[in-house]
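Hello forum,

I keep getting stuck at the same step: I have a sequence, I want structure tokens, and every attempt I make locally crashes halfway through. Rather than fight my setup again tonight, could one of you with a working pipeline run this one for me? It's a single chain of 131 residues.
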Amino acid sequence: MTILNQKLLAEVNRARLWFPARKIQCLWAKEVKQIQTVTSLEGELTANVGDYLCRGVDGEIWPQHAETLFAKYEQTTEFDNEGWQKFSPRPDAAGVLAAQISRPFTVNTHGCELTGQPNDFLEVVSKPKTT
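Reply #2:
Ran it on my machine without issues. Output:
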């Protein structure tokens, strides 16, 4: 864990901002057939063959590994006219801990630096340790 992440997590822990959260909105996704670069809210990301492009409720696009998508969402039989398939949140999917951060922030994850704007949310699979 980077020093930057440790400081942010310590700040969130001290302020007791964590709350349990679950996915409640459907999303649309389609399998990536050839490697491509996607402009997401986090910046330029690579979508590899076998990943899925996901489209959120506000039209935002991001790549996601198939295993991650299927762990959180179930496929439906509904497709739009552009080939995007509707996915519903799995009722048995594990929730996350989330915190709304009131200031701009940066986190490093999987070798990428992600930036958050004031009032964006930070989410983790389990409560992080900062020691």
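The chain has a mean pLDDT of 90. If your local run keeps crashing, start a new thread with the error log.
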